[in-house]
Amino acid sequence: MSAVGEDARLAAVHSYHLLDAPRPVVLDELTRLASSVLETPMSTVTLIDRDRQWFAGNTGMPGAGEGPLSSSFCGRVVDRRLSLVVADTLAHPEYRTWSNVVGVPHIRFYAGVPIVDEDGFVIGTMCVLDHQPREISDRQLDLLSTMAGQAAGHLAAIRNRLLLAEVGDELSRAISREEDFVATVSHELRTPVTTIQGYLELLVDNEELTPYRKLIDPIQRNGERLVRMVDHLLAGTRPAGTPLPLLRARTDLVTVAEAAVAACRPQSGPRDVRVVVDAVVSPAPVPGDLTRLSQAAEQLIRNAVLFSPAGATVTVRVTTDELEVSDPGAGIPADELPHVAERFYRGRFARDQAVPGVGLGLSIADRIVRAHEGTLTVTSNGSGHGTIATMSLPKD
Question: How far is CA 215 from CA 191, 200, 203, in A?
């Protein structure tokens, strides 16, 4: 790229005002979604500056939030303006000597796609990384590309809100203030735990520490539980009058279902609950925010898993404009149904059986669906007869 072209690209990167700033929660959420769907311990939304890379969204990547371009896979993506997949970094003649390959965070697999902003500049990447060599399917690479498009949309929305706030739009100022607060709190609470989780992943992979696995596993589980609780509290306690920032884009309900099921594997696997997706149509295009809709579906699926007995099957059914989650579990008494979407509400079964949670899951899902101008309905035939939760959305 010419010097003039690179200067214009760098100006575009700086126009988002995210370098050396708290990470936007929505970009952290997008990286968590990518890690869940592609089953990798690390994922980032990376902006490429003149002489460094900056993680504007981060899941699992240890460090101070930035790194040099001399050992940046993402830098290679931006230079080439093409996707990059490295199945095994140690088998590559150039990458195998990089410090982030032979040392922390021990990158053995990398897959990244360019993030192209609304002005056509390649400002960074959406990528996933692993401590183990692996392959990536065409479908997974397509999903990563979809998430890169979502990242570009979120970045544009962040920049637009900043511009509106500068010219005195009070609503944009209020949203920006709240997002700054949530980002700061999320960073202060989540970063220490996710850093610990990242190093625990390395310990788990160390065969010499196998005798200590029984000590490491509970630390991992409780760390994940703490992160989920922080996420729930941040998502579920937003001021009621503040609009939920959404990316108004075309997305696919089948992809939403697949992403939500992937995010719930840590709960469904240990509980021996099978989660299946029944797509009546595919794709099922709807207008909406992939990250937010996946979060809403995740809350419904997680509830279904937690309230189902071992060996049960939870079904996620997708039609043209609905995502339905049904389970054969504990069910909900008729007198509790009107309250299930209230914040911090926990029914008798949840209290008596000490089901994990703080009573925010359905409240979060309801707010996300209503922000998309849709409806969330929950039905049950009573205790012991299962539950059906349905997200109904406007058609594309």
Answer: 22, 11, 11
The helix (run of H) or strand (run of E) holding residue 277 is strand 274-279
Tell me the sheet residues that pair with 66.
Answer: 54
pTM of the predicted model, to two decimals? 0.77
Q: How many Cβ atoms sit within 10 Å of the Cβ of residue 159?
A: 17
Question: Is it the case that residue 181 has pLDDT exceeding 70?
Answer: no
The whole-angstrom distance between residue 122's C-alpha and the CA centroid of its chain comes to 22
Q: What is the pLDDT of residues 75-110, one digit of tens each?
A: 999 999 999 999 999 999 999 999 999 998 999 999
Distance CA 102, CA 31 (A): 24
β-partners of residue 128 are 43, 111
CB atoms within 10 A of CB 171: 12
Task: Give me the amino acid identity at 352.
Answer: D
Task: Provide Rg for the chain, Cα atoms.
Answer: 21
Share of the chain above pLDDT 90, in %: 52
